[in-house]
């Protein structure tokens, strides 16, 4: 089954890549600044967060990082940029089948191509934004060195979890439209329950214990450990989100294969 799935994806690789290119171009077709908005929007958010929170939170960062000039900016970017990737994949995936209803009804192609297109589009945006952040690290002398390569397995774990969760939400949202609305609200609470804007040390001990139930907390901490401290993360702490991501992907594919025919009727 997996081999047939991969063959179908490879056979329609032109459709996938063409869709990614068309979406990127259409997003900025009539825009004066074009693709520059991909950089300006998150950059504006980071500047606002940094200006507002740097004086309050910067001194509360643990260890020597608290004394670095750009410590809080790096801490903030490590979390917000990678969280944005997760939010875009899950947010787009939960509505991908609804948004492409006409395409699904009119054309015969592997429907699994649609979540892959979502991941690739989000990946293009992330590469542009994170590339700018990497230039900032190099320019300010804060590049973490060889530990930077540790970001690759972290990104794979995040994408695995995001696309698995997104596929589950996408299938359920076809039959129960409230799912998408609920997840949009949940994602906002989830963001603030994850130590991204604030350091973990600012939370009371009684609250920190609850973070064990937040799979994204360990992942965000791993990003921050690499980018802020230049150290390898605690890989053992990432097993829960890795296993959860695999489980979500398996459940998402199962739901997708089982309900694919019914989805067409619902759309």
Can you describe this structure?
The protein is mostly helical. The protein has one domain (38-53, 68-266). 73% of the residues lie in helices and 0% in strands. The protein is built from 12 helices and no strands. The longest helix has 28 residues, at 239-266. The mean pLDDT is 82.
Compressed to H and E, one letter per element, the order equals: HHHHHHHHHHHH
Helix content: over 70%
Poorly predicted sequence stretches spanning 5 or more consecutive residues:
none
Give the number of domains.
Answer: 1
Q: For the report, how would you describe the main beta sheet?
A: none
Beta-strand portion reads under 5%
Oligomer: single chain
Summarize the structure.
It is built from 12 helices and no strands. With 267 residues, it is mainly α. Helix 4 packs antiparallel against helix 11.
How is the topology of this model organized?
Blueprint: H1 2-11, H2 13-27, H3 36-57, H4 71-93, H5 96-99, H6 101-106, H7 113-139, H8 151-175, H9 178-192, H10 205-208, H11 215-229, H12 239-266
Helix pairs in contact: 2-7, 3-4, 3-7, 4-7, 4-8, 4-11, 8-9, 8-12
Key phrases:
12 helices, 267 residues
